[in-house]
Amino acid sequence: MPRNKSGSANGGVIGKTNKSSFGKDTVTSKTSSGTVTTQTGTRIVEALVIAGGGGGGGCYHGAGGGAGGSATNVCGPFSVTVGGGGAGASPGATARGTSGTNSTALCQTSTGGGGGGTGRTGVQPGATGGSGGGGSCSGTGGSGTACQGNDGGDGTPGPAGAPNYGTGGGGGAGAVGSDGAPTKGGNGGAGSSASPLSSCTFAGGGGGSAYNPGGNAGCGGSGGGGAGANVGGNGTAGTANTGGGGGGAERSPAGTGGAGGSGRVIVKELNKASGVWSM
Fold first, then answer.
1. Residues 125 and 151: beta-carbon distance below 8 Å
2. CA-based angle 65:70:76, to the nearest 5?
3. Side-chain half-sphere CA neighbours of 173 within 13 A
4. H/E element holding 267?
5. b/e map of 5-41 (b: 16 or more CB within 10 Å)?
6. If you average pLDDT over every residue of the chain, what do you get?
7. Per-residue pLDDT at 276 exceeds 60
8. Phi-psi region for residue 5, left (φ > 0), alpha (ψ -120 to 50) or beta?
9. d(C-alpha 26, C-alpha 213), whole Å
10. Is the peptide bond before 182 cis (omega within 30 degrees of 0)?
11. CB under 8 Å to 54, separation ≥6 — which residues?
12. What's the Rg (C-alpha) of the chain?
């Protein structure tokens, strides 16, 4: 057993080393890919990684991106990749909106939001992603990624022979997208403000479109989601650097789907004392 200077016995301490870090709680927000240079004494950081939102479907709908964060050990500069938002589908397009691209930092990857579905020629469901894209007039919403986002809403056609329908809202980081109704597009799912690194809300889903002269398009979810369009309109783009999904477009004449918002990476350099963790 270890002894002190007077020769008396004392207990040993066994446990996992707790590294000291003198980051002064400095926060860096990156809106484009590049390098984060930490302070000399920083050894531990926490990161919030937000991917790009999915683009809205042309002739029908939109989507949202996911986010996550955790503490990790670092030593010196490190690189981050900030994902871009997906393009909205062009007028008359038979393909759905483009999914957003991933963001990465410190071995964390946030998955881009899924593109919105389309029903121009055949039904394409919303794409899977960090949060799923909303479904077209009779299509299903895409699936979200566990621990990052939520599913997109389903589209709903009107009665047989009636030229009206509502498409599904894109999923958000905090909630699922709403299903469409015969005369209303689904609202985009709410984003998330759960991270202690920022007071802002990120990764809201895009709103679904409505094909009905008296219909109402879906609203974008909080956290940068773009609104959907009514007959002949263009979807609204997701807000830049929030990972919000683009709103869905509508036909007659066909509109353009809203582009997804680009992502962001937020890094906080932590202050932690040295010592030993108890086992």
1. no
2. 110
3. 34
4. strand 264-269
5. eeeeeeeeeeeeeeeebebeeeeeebeebeebebeee
6. 84
7. no
8. alpha
9. 52
10. no
11. 62, 63, 64, 65, 85, 86, 97, 98, 99, 100, 112, 113, 114, 115, 116, 127, 129, 131, 133, 170, 206, 245, 246, 260
12. 23
Q: Where does residue 10 fall: left (phi above 0), alpha (psi -120 to 50 degrees), or beta otherwise?
A: beta
Least Cα distance to 207 among 241, 240, 234 occurs for 234
* Two structure tokens written together for 273: 């004392």
**Which pLDDT belongs to residue 10?**
47
What's the rounded Cα separation, in Å, for the pair 65 and 2?
55
pLDDT in tens, 205-259: 999 998 877 778 999 999 999 999 988 789 999 999 999 999 998 875 678 899 9
- Is 260 in contact with 252 (CB distance < 8 Å)? no
Distance CA 53, CA 169 (A): 13
Instruction: Give the sheet arrangement for strand 27-30, strand by strand.
Output: 27-30, 264-269, 44-50, 67-73
pTM of the model: 0.86
